[in-house]
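[job 4471] stage=fold_predict status=RUNNING
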Amino acid sequence: MNSDLQKLIDLQQVDARIAALKTEVAALPKHVKEIEAKLAGSKTRVEAAQAAMKADETARRKHESDIQDQQQKISKYRDQSLNVKTNQEYRALMDEIKFAEQKIAASEDKILEIMVAADARKEALKQAEAVLKADTAENEKEKESARLRTAEDEKELAELTEQRKQLREGVSDDVLRHYDRVLKLRGSALSAVHENQMCSVCRVMLRPQIFQNVMTNEQFVTCDSCQRILYFIPPPPKEEPAEAKPKQAEPVPEATEAGTGETAAQ
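[job 4471] inference complete, writing structure tokens
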């Protein structure tokens, strides 16, 4: 095979690996952001549970304060009822006391609801904190894995870049320009041809003379359809048929004693 053609085959493999590594390196920061977004969601759920408990505590204290206010009003109204002069004034004070007692009952119901919900709030917070802890550990693990993967990819990229430079040396500028142009346009610059006489990428049948030229692997031949540089991969050697083993003669059965005796009798 033409040495420059072999270099281009190797170069395409290196370029494909470089492209894959660059894609992976570019995707890693996005992966880290997705991990951090998941962790942020866990933090938000914990904060929401904490805020709900804090809001319940604030509401409970407000209801307790309202109860104290109403109890003070009731005490004041009872004291005033001792000094009223008319039944009308007395009934008015009793109505105020009744209204205050109703407000106390409503506040007590609210406090009871908060107390009943408190256990569920605590359990929700406990679960959210457990998920946050697990997500935090997973976050650190995934980020460290991403950092290690990035370092490994960048190291391999540096090695491949140097290998790419060496492979390109010695290949003519015209061939490299064609290679680079088709690689950028098509994603690959070379295509294998097998005994079916087709370009293995675009699946176009080659003309007989073109196929004969490709089979030598000694010159640069391009596909008329996709412009990729063609190279021939010969078929694997056919296995020799196994030699037929000589047929063994079947063994002659031995005569039985009875048969021998019968023969002798005759």
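[job 4471] summary: Residues 14-168 form a domain with the Helix Hairpins fold (CATH 1.10.287.1490).
[job 4471] exit 0
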